[in-house]
Every structure is written in structure tokens, then in C-alpha cells.
Amino acid sequence: MAIGKNLLVLFCLGVLIPTLNANPLENDEYWKNHENEFDTYWKARAEKAAEDNKAAYFEDPYSVSGNLTSTVTELIVGKDTRRNLRGKNIHEGCMATNPIDRCWRCDPNWANNRQKLADCVQGFGRNTVGGKGGPIYVVTDPSDDNMVDLKPGTLRHAVTRNGPLWIIFERNMIINLKQELIMTSDKTIDGRGVDVYISNGAGITIQFIKNVIIHGIKIYDISVHGGGLIRDSETHYGLRTQSDGDGISIFGSSNVWIDHVSMRNCYDGLIDAIMGSTAITISNSHFTDHNEAMLFGASDSYDADKIMQITLAFNHFGKRLIQRMPRCRHGFFHVVNNDYTHWEMYAIGGSMNPTIISEGNRFIGPDNIYAKEITKREYSPESVWTHWQWRSINDEYMNGAFFVQSGPELVNRPFSRLDMIKAKPGSYVGRLTRYAGSLKCRVGFPC
Length: 447
Description:
Pathway: Glycan metabolism; pectin degradation; 2-dehydro-3-deoxy-D-gluconate from pectin: step 2/5
Largest sheet: 10 strands, parallel
Domain Pectate lyase: 172-369
Strand order of the largest sheet: 1-2-5-8-13-16-20-24-27-30
Number of helices: 9
CATH architecture: 3 Solenoid
CATH superfamily: Single-stranded right-handed beta-helix, Pectin lyase-like
Mean pLDDT: 85
Family: Belongs to the polysaccharide lyase 1 family.
Number of strands: 31
CATH topology: Pectate Lyase C-like
Oligomer: single chain
Protein name: Pectate lyase
Low-confidence stretches: 1-22, 77-91, 414-423
Signal peptide: 1-22
């Protein structure tokens, strides 16, 4: 009997210790030390990014979330879809099932008009255009050998060029990044038509920039890397410290759209957004095999994250996920029509009074009777969090899942007249998220 109890204690410690020690980003001292590392160049970029982030902030976030909801409703019920889907090439038999996808996937000539994709983003990232208007850059070489004198034709060379670029890939590629991939503004990474894997290396860093689209790639098995001299633009390279091991790190940036990516197993987070980042949409993506999936806001004391506004739409949170889908601080988060089929601790959590509107999601609770609750408030007593605005609107709960709401009921909320928030519940999520993750697109056919 004593042996059984000891094994139970060891098992509990094995589960808890990685969680308690994870994510050094949440230590306030980390930020003080990290900010001191910035040279004059990065400080200037930070100041410009702060201005851009403030300009990207929506004064009325409810109206943005309402606009997306009404578009989903009109797609499903067939009301005036031509106007709301913004597409002239809607072909009968197209398998696209949500308004973002219907904007481009039904066009058999998508490969000849790749930049049309930039017209399709919705939610808080809806003004993101990425590299639209710029030339096409074709990545021909999957290598990543030199961090300063970059080889033309590589992904690192592409993302560090000045000005807008629409980056595509010549063929299927596995890219093992030797250090974090630091991007410049006005870039689209477009993996449609080929299989592009960012794996077994460092991840992607979106730091103090704006206007980035990442679409149609797979990111997995990302690890910490030691840093060193790394080029971050055509005209600058500098000394970087150890990377954090995120799949995609959004750091002090705005107007970012991540769509149709497949992600799993990164050392830190799959996607983290921190340091005043805002105007972000994460859509149509598939996430599996991870502990702390998404962190939005890294420090309780960093109240500049109050401008953070993020839309999560049409994503599938799948097998072997544990927690943080997402975990939020300070800002406004619209979580709409996502499919939560697996979690082991909780699905949506937060601290520091974030506004979380969960709408039309499907939550399938785990078999563990102690992990049925979808929500988790951290570091605050109920007397405090009971005033936080966390609302569940037409979510579908299965296998015992339940959402603990708080804050005042949303009455007379300032949504558009066409908003039909209560019309389409989470029972439609299976259809809306059917094609989450990286797509198999063939040139000359609808994707």
C-alpha cells in the first residue's frame, strides 16, 4: 500500500514540476534583463512598433467581433453570401466551409493570384496585408547555414529583405533553422501548393514589426537555440541571446495573421503574443502534442498589454494538448467557432482581468472528472475575478465540459445590426473547422 502511495506522489510530481518550471517569460526580471540587451537599432524599432501597435488598436473591440460573427452566420444560412464573402469566384461544389476560406479556396486560379489571400483575413487582424503589392520571392534552397552573410534563395534571406515580399516555395522543403528566424515588416510566407516544414530547429520571431501573414506551413519539434550574431534586416545584424523555443513568437508587433498552419511539440509555446502586440488573427489552424499551447501577455505587471486584441477562429485544438488554448492577460480575446476536442488540465485561462468572449465553440471534456472545467482563473480570488468579463455565447458542451462565466451579462452590446450571435451554436463547429491545418493545394484546382 505504501509503495502505491509513493508511486502516486512521484507521478503527480512528474506532471506538476514541468508545468511549474515552464515558461520563464512570466518572470518579471526576465523582461528587465531582456530590455537592457536592446541596442540603439532595436530601441528605435521598438519605439516605431509601439506607435504602429497603438494605431492598430480598435477602440470598440465588440464591433470587430460582432462583424466576424454575423459573417459566419450569413455563410451558414445563405444570406447575401456574395457580398459578405467578398468573392467573385465562388464555385459550386467548393469544399471551403467558413468565410475566410470561401474568400479564396474556391478559385481554381489561386496560384496565379496568390495575393488575393490578403483580402480574406477577418477579426482583429483584418487590416493585415502582409507582402501584398510586393514582388514574389521564390525560396529555392532549404539550407540555413550562415546567420549574417545570407544565401539568396533561402527563407532567411527572404524574410530579412526591405519592403513588401510575397514569399513562396519552389518545391517541398524541410527547413531546420539554426537560429530563430527574425522577420521584417510587410512579409507573407505562403506555403500553398507544396509541403513546407519548419522543424527540428529554432522557430519564427515577429519582433517590433507589422504586417505579417504566415500561411500553409507545418511547424513542429522546435527547440531552444543559443543565439549569437543574427541578421534581422538587410542593413543590420546583432547579437541575440538564447531563443525561447516558441514555434511563433509575436513580440511587440501588430497586424499579424496566422492561417492554416499545423503545429505541435515546441519547447515553450506554440504561439506566444507578448509585449503590447495587437491586431492579431489566428485562424484555420491545427494544434496537437503540447503542454502550454498559447500565451497572450507574458507578465502581470506589463499593463501595456491592455491594447492586445486577438481573434481565434475556426481552429482545431486536438490530441495531447494540456493547457493554455489560450492563457490570456489584460487584453480582449474573441474565441469563436473553434473545436476543442482534447485538453488535460483546462482549455482557456487567464489573469489580470482579460476580456474573453467565447462564442460558438465546441468543448469536449476529457474523461478525467477533475478536468471538466474549461476555464481557469489564475492568481486572483473569486472576489476579484467575478468582475472579469468572461462570457460563453452559444458554446456547445460535451462529455461534462463546463464554462464558468463572470462579469456582467452582455446586454445591449455594441455589435452591428446584422450580428446574429445567438443564431449559430457550437454544433456547427465540426463543419467550420473541417479543413483546419495545412492544406493540400494543387495548382489549377480549387484548394
